[in-house]
Write a sequence for this structure.
């Protein structure tokens, strides 16, 4: 089996020029307009620094910490200055594939393939000299078995999402599970059913989520709620239930079905909270962070900002809990970054830091640079955007960042809403299927012009509802910066 994996990796390297030429789909075409509000600033990296950014963290003294693919941790002073004047300091080495960092109680916690490590500087000379394993109570054997972790939750626990073996299988302990790691190193299994998760973090209400990649049992990338005791869709990890006392193995989902149908059979099945239509909204979504900058990053407070590795862009997402189930919407935000985005972080000044790299093998990336650290700044000018979409019992409430033209907004034909879902199956990914067009019966703008209630004849349960509102203009006649958004309907409000 190991020999087959090595051969597969070598073939991927040999074919990398062809993979990089793979069709990545149309760009949004809005980069120039986005730059008027959110310019991208490069943080220079010296040639002597072997930087492949993965995990990001802000230190108590305001420096940026970066964990790298090769296992180093750098502290960077001056990354948030205008212009950036970075000074790089090597704090720690010897780890591997650091995609998550968290600073707490005077030490750095780094999550890599096989463990969570507490790294500290005991003698105060600025260089780490203690490496304490908090836990390594999961299996690790091959290159696809990534591990991504959250920042500490209010109890101090770190949530870790563990990728499967070779995308389709779970050969090693707890692969395909999310687990919690307590401050004293106890590992607690939380839920099963992940495939190849990336970023992990909380929403504004404190619920924990992970990004899932498109692939087997996953028609597109999605944001999934890490519900304790839940099953998140990929059954390969069922074989580890026997090591979790008190947690019962779910029934097997049927392939070639629909996820909302299987929810009725598999009571533990947790639907994706936000689906990101393939290519339209990312292809290999990675790290994400909740915007709690107090308005320093514009009108999107308490929204989730997500990077995409393949398409080198940033998206937004909002979530809400309906009938005890999380769901929500995603929105375009900023394209044109320099490389594959692995992680994002907000600076104390409210800037969004994005870091990443290309592998030069296996996976194509739109951005041309081999690695980069970039900063997205808000220049204080508010773009005209769809701020948020919320579901109501008889339609959707669409909120905007600026007052809308009430005459146009009151026209039902100003709202084009189509729906579709994916095949829930063991095959890789899925086309968009079961398409419908939603009939808008009425549109009622609010008196302040900042929102409009769009009434529908009916919802399509389990479908992505794709909004195209290009006809909507601001009160001053300004077009929307992005006219599309995508809401995932898992539940319909009862009242």
């Amino acid at each position: 089996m190991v020999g087959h994996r090595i051969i597969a990796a070598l073939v991927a390297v040999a074919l990398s020029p062809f993979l990089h030429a793979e069709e990545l789909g149309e760009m949004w075409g809005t980069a120039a307009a986005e730059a008027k509000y959110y310019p991208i600033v490069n943080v220079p990296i010296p040639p002597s620094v072997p930087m492949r950014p993965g995990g990001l963290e802000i230190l108590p003294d305001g420096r940026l910490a970066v964990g790298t693919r090769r296992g180093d941790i750098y502290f960077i002073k001056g990354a948030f200055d205008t212009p950036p004047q970075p000074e790089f300091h090597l704090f720690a080495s010897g780890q591997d594939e650091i995609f998550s960092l968290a600073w707490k109680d005077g030490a750095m916690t780094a999550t890599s393939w096989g463990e969570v490590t507490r790294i500290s500087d005991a003698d105060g000379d600025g260089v780490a000299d203690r490496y304490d394993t908090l836990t390594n109570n999961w299996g690790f054997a091959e290159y696809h078995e990534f591990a991504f972790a959250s920042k500490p939750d209010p109890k101090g626990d770190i949530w870790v999402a563990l990728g499967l073996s070779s995308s389709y299988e779970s050969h090693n302990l707890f692969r395909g599970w999310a687990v919690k790691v307590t401050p004293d190193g106890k590992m607690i299994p939380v839920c099963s059913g992940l495939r190849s998760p990336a970023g992990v973090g909380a929403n504004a209400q404190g619920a924990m989520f992970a990004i899932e990649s498109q692939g087997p049992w996953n028609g597109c990338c999605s944001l999934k709620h890490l519900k304790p005791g839940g099953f998140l869709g990929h059954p390969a990890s069922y074989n580890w239930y026997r090591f979790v006392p008190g947690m019962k193995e779910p029934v097997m989902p049927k392939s070639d079905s629909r996820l909302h149908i299987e929810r009725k059979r598999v009571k533990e099945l947790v639907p994706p909270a936000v689906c990101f239509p393939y290519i339209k909204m990312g292809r290999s979504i990675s790290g994400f962070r909740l915007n709690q900058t107090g308005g320093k990053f514009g009108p999107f407070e308490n929204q989730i900002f997500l990077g995409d590795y393949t398409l080198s862009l940033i998206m937004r997402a909002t979530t809400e809990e309906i009938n005890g189930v999380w769901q929500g919407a995603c929105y375009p935000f900023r394209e044109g970054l320099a490389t594959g985005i692995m992680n994002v972080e907000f600076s104390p000044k409210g800037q969004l830091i994005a870091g990443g790299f290309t592998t030069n093998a296996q996976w194509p990336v739109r951005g041309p640079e081999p690695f980069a650290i970039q900063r997205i700044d808000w220049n204080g000018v508010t773009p005209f955007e769809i701020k948020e979409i919320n579901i109501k019992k008889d339609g959707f409430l669409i909120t905007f960042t600026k007052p809308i033209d009430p005459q146009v907004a009151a026209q039902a034909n100003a709202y084009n809403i189509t729906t579709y879902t994916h095949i829930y199956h063991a095959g890789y990914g899925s086309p968009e299927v079961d398409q419908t067009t939603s009939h808008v019966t009425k549109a009622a703008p609010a008196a302040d012009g900042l929102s409009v209630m769009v009434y529908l004849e009916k919802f399509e349960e389990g479908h992505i509802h794709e909004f195209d509102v290009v006809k909507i203009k601001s009160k001053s006649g300004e077009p929307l910066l992005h006219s599309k958004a995508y809401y995932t309907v898992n539940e319909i409000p009862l009242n």
